[in-house]
Amino acid sequence: MSTHSAMASFTIDEILSDEWAKIERGIGARPQLTGDALDMRLQYRELAEQMNASAPVTPGVSVVDEHITEHLTVRVYKPMDRKEALPVGLYFHGGGFCCGDLDSEDPFCRILVERQRCVIVSVGYRLAPEHKAPAQTEDAMTAWNWSVQNASLLGGDPSRYFTIGQSAGGNLALATAHLLIDQGRRSEINGVVALVPLAIHPKNVPFHHKDNHRSYHECADGPVNTADAMATFLESVEAREDDPSVFVLLSQHLHQFPPTYIAVCEVDPLRDDGILVGCALREAGVPVKLDHYRGLPHVFWAFGCPSPSGDFIGDVMAGVDFVLKS
């Protein structure tokens, strides 16, 4: 898994793919989140509503909200024609720990269930700046515990539980694995699917990784996610820079991680987070599959931009298959 990128010698506009350029022309601008955390939350919600308005209908998927604590709701997606016990994915939405909710990635969850034949439990975790760390990982673990305890209710196969998420949600997918291992519960988790994840605080990159952690600089002003936006998110959540339960590249448990699938985008401040944690896991002996989307920005798929394969959900499905069968 090479960390090489052409970004070092070309501008962002020169690197972005023709497919993404068409998206920006259609929008009439380069989409970016700006302002403080609450400003970005509103922008994120409006953007998600626009993107979701054209989402395909999934009549074969049942959707039920479960209020599992006073402050925590999960949304359970299941195939309506389910007859056998299915894999269960605990899903975490993106949004920098400050944005997003159960609705923002609802179509993604529906399509994944329809095509993957699995159960998805999407977690409406608490958001910063109102709720500082470790509220997010606490909610992740509460939702995991509920999902495991209610396997029969979910129609889930306890031997095929995994975590999955995008961006900050990809971070929580990794963090949940770390916390389960830290608690001596490695046997409960069978895989991690981390899409464009945060894995290290940019102010606390280990010395031996610094030369290969360049994407915050190279992609500082790229589409969708920017270095300034990441700084605002991290300042808002107030996670300790040296906390391995948030910044998993620091984890001492990497050698115990389950098989992991990681997706990274070339024009994304978080690109090198995903690459470095993938390399570290592989060096620790963990089965790792990594897809690197050249010329594309953070969560490009949310905008209807095609992946090189033409089927990003298919790529994710292959990642789920990889972690459950490795």
From TrEMBL:
<feature type="domain" description="Alpha/beta hydrolase fold-3">
    <location>
        <begin position="90"/>
        <end position="301"/>
    </location>
</feature>
<keyword id="KW-0378">Hydrolase</keyword>
<dbReference type="GO" id="GO:0016787">
    <property type="term" value="F:hydrolase activity"/>
</dbReference>
<protein>
    <submittedName>
        <fullName>Lipase/esteras-like protein</fullName>
    </submittedName>
</protein>
<dbReference type="InterPro" id="IPR013094">
    <property type="entry name" value="AB_hydrolase_3"/>
</dbReference>
<dbReference type="InterPro" id="IPR029058">
    <property type="entry name" value="AB_hydrolase_fold"/>
</dbReference>
<dbReference type="InterPro" id="IPR050300">
    <property type="entry name" value="GDXG_lipolytic_enzyme"/>
</dbReference>
<dbReference type="Pfam" id="PF07859">
    <property type="entry name" value="Abhydrolase_3"/>
</dbReference>
